[in-house]
Amino acid sequence: MRFSLAYISRLILASLWLNVAAAEADKELQLAVVERINIPLLKQFIGTVEAVNKATMKAQTSGRLAEIYFDVDDIVKQGEVLARFRNERQQAELDLANAGLQEAIAEKERSQADYDRYQNLYEQKLVAVSTVDQARAALKTAKARLDGARARIKQAREDYEYTIIRAPYSGIVTKRHVEVGESVNPGSPLVSGISLDVLRVVVEVPQSLVENIRTRHQAMVYLADGSILKSENITVFPFADDMSHSFTVRVELPADVAVSKGSNSLYPGMLVKTGFVAGEQQLLVIPAEAMAHRGEMNVVYVKSPDGRIVMRQVRPGNMIDDKRRVIHAGLTEGENIYLNPLAATVALKQRGQKQSSGNADHD
User: Fold this and answer.
1) Residue 361: its pLDDT value, please?
2) Which CATH number covers residue 105?
3) Which H or E run includes 158?
4) Whole-model pTM?
5) 121 in the same domain as 104
6) Segments in the chain below pLDDT 50
7) Rounded CA gap, 256 and 197, in Å?
8) Do 187 and 65 have their domain in common?
9) What is the DSSP string of 225-250?
10) In-domain check, residue 116
11) DSSP string, 262-302
């Protein structure tokens, strides 16, 4: 049988291409070792997000409500006026106290001047010592009246401030307890609100885990997109519930987690998955890039002791630190696996080996 020169040339080129492809595949056949590492043992529970700062502003004086400046769901800043009472009486008392203060200041200045003058005359032996003593007593009385006037104005100013209800911190109004025109007495609730600046998660955990949680102080809150908020600021209540015998654990969250972040926003009242480090466990891990999908199977390519490439079906677990994956079955510690499944497949075909799954080798 005769072959044309063109046909023979194509065969030579194909052979050369196969040899180059095999050489390139061999360059990419980097190996990794199946490792057994210690990783934290996590126990997960459902917790409730709550605001650290929440308060109900109550009346500290009696009177009629004149204005309410914010409604439910309104955002307020620290120090802003939430509501105001009618305060004509308190304003009058403050004005009267101011007038008394000015009068006391003038009397003290006059008494001081009299004392200074009599003291100077006494030194010149022009007045008796009794006159100086009377001036000194009058100065002390004037100073006492000035102190009393200052105390009265402080009280009057405080009574006036009681008629103005201010936000103790920035947050959101959650409830109004009164309406404009209502008369209230000291202690009556006026407005309730919460702050979104600092949040925490409250979780009920079984007593079998309390000591581990109290000792390790490591918690994770899982957000909607799979990201994790870590916290070491954990408070374990020193007593258990009488009915469930569970302990309450509070996990303080980083500041500003409630700021709008799409699906990751956290708000008081939400349920969130919360994990606690309760110990350690040993698991097999491999580089995540070493695993491939063949149909419905998850596989890796293993280098056998005699140097052949073996495709092995595995049962994968969760990812660790975005680079490694847990393997629950199919591999043993110390085995060598190929980091590039595609290159391993090319090399397998170039070497003429037959693929088999499970624990079978390739002939």
Assistant:
1) 44
2) 1.10.287
3) helix 129-161
4) 0.57
5) yes
6) 1, 3, 18, 20, 22-23, 25-27, 260, 353-363
7) 5
8) yes
9) TS-EEEE--EEEEEEE-TTT-EEEEE
10) yes
11) GGG---TT-EEEEEEEEEEEEEEEEEGGG-EEETTEEEEEE
